[in-house]
Please model this.
Amino acid sequence: MQSDGNHDKNYTPGVHPVFPEAFASEFPEAEEITFISYRAGSFIVIPHPAGEDKKYDEEQGVAYGQPNFFKVFDRNILIGNAEKGLDEPNEVILSKRFALKYFGKEDAIGQVLRYDNQEFRVTAIMEDFPGNTDFPIDVLASYITVKKEKDDNGWNGIWSDDQCYFTLKQGSVIADMEARMPAFVTKYLGDATRNRNHTEFVFQPLSQIHFDDRFGNYNYNTVSNSMLMALSIIGIFLLLTACINFINLTTAEAVKRSKEVGIRKSLGSMRSQLVFQFLGETFLIALASIVGALVLTELGLNFLNPFLEISLSLNFAKDIALWIFLLSVLVIVTLLSGFYPALVVSAFNPISALKNQTQANHSSGFNLRRGLVVLQFVISQLLIIATVVLITQMNFLQNKDLGFRKEAIITIPIPEEETPVGGDGVSKMRTLRDDLLNLAGVEAASLSSTPPSSGSVSQTSFNIEGDEKDYGTQVKQIDGNYLSLYGLELVAGEGVQDMDTAHTVVVNEQFAQVAGFSNPADIVGKKIRMWRKNLPVSGVVKNFHTVSLQNPMEATIMLNRIRGYETLSVKLNPQSMQQTLKEIQAKWESTYPSYLYSYRFIDEQIREFYEGEQRMSLLLSGFTTLAIFIGCLGLFGLTVFMANQKTKEIGVRKVLGASVESILMLFSKEFIKLILIGFCVAAPLAYYFANQYLDQFAYKITVGPSVFLIGLAVTVAIALLTVGYRSVKAAMANPTKALRSE
Model:
């Protein structure tokens, strides 16, 4: 689904819980329509009548599904009946591995587990989900259990993990359904007057949910096609660089095989035979390289899979595409890297070859080799500059002021929802918070829905008195301690009181700007209509970042609401942190003895926003290192070729009094010239691609001259180090031997 936001379009994979039934009545082309309500992170208890209950804090969570789930998705039922397994309330289907985990046996039919204060009976066992799925579901509960609760929201609320999937009847055309969708929106969400944020429902093919980063999936991990394309291009660049390197090294050393070619030609060998001989040699080298690469890949996957949180594997028995790819690479690399050297070597004149006089007749070949080295420099400098940009951007993101305090603050989940306390009732979460404030090592404590910056975002629309236009805002439900704990600075008015229900709201500066107030103080006292309530603004805080810095600053409203408190934030004294953590755990466990205790530091949660960029920077650094290494080999090959060709020239220069330094300069200026040519090509390309990458961030660095100078300096330094050894060796050689050999 997509709708208008304050900055751009908002996207969510979620739909209203009542959407599937309305969709079924309006679109008969849909054969099977199933609805999934997913709950990430779930606490499950296995009751034990005679002993202590088993408790599991599941990261993957629980999904509520409908009986036709298995008609839409390919998950085989191993034990039980798929059609009857989810048709009654409080029924659950487990994966095989979870049946073994919870009950120690695969056949767990009839067993009971407790989730969300309800007991569920196991009715079937399904196969484990594959490692590459975007539906990591091990616990599938019957949706009818929560259907009434979800339907009560009608067309008002949307949760991103409430998603609808359908299959299309044979012969139906999706374009016809898309053409009728605007009429569907008008019928159920209203015309433009009522549907003020222009909500639209979008059809997304199942094959694209892993690659469309606008929406997301149940893995909370998408890889855009552009990212895959970039990695593929880098891989092709590396392969191309290796082929260029092979060409340079082979042709540079061709003179050493000139006598062999002369003898073979004298004995009657045809040029075509020599071409096939050298191509065959290249084929064997490429084949050995692929075998070695497969061994390294198998070993590398042990490190790569945990690093990228994926489960790649080499399956030679079943993966036909892998065999096609390997054979294609073998043929392409053999032809690309071996064909030109084979033509050069096989073209030697037999008399010249026997006299070792072949190298002087190939100035055009030397120019080609220089051109190939320039191409290597272009690739290497592109990767170097890209790595510098990526690392600099990462440092910028990690060091940017987010507008709130995050040091030495932990967040602890509140496992039970509470309603406003009346009379002599006691709130467990408030009592726990106040008890923690009495600990010597606790500086502050606060209850809220989420910390200031979080991956979990609640959004709604609002309007302000005197203006009927709807605007979008993020919502945070907080207590009276929240602003001071996180250091959120008031620029006008005052904060909210420490109450269970909202009487006033606090907004950020962006909220005031979105609502049309250039001076934030002017919004204080104005009434905001939201969630069918009219609440006055009591204060305005400075802007703070609520999500990743990839996104622009969002309007944010904060209010009291104990029903929405899910997190306890605690500011610790760094001097006594370890002891205080133990005391906090003891207090929490005495308050919620039926649950498992856990906590996380705020700064760790924020770092997770940029895990993808951190991994990409490490990968790109590795690719760059590999490209530089291959490029160095190519440089060495060209240096060897130059030294072989200039043996007589160097001897003459030394006899006439040339110094070692001047001969080194003879070699160095050639490579510096090639580097500068490569830089002139790489710099504009790098500038374009760097800005394309940075455009995904609302807050980013500026690509200035220093980035390119670093890339150029690194390339020059590496090139000079590479050619230095062979150049010095040539410069130090005895000139009489060089002249005698000539």
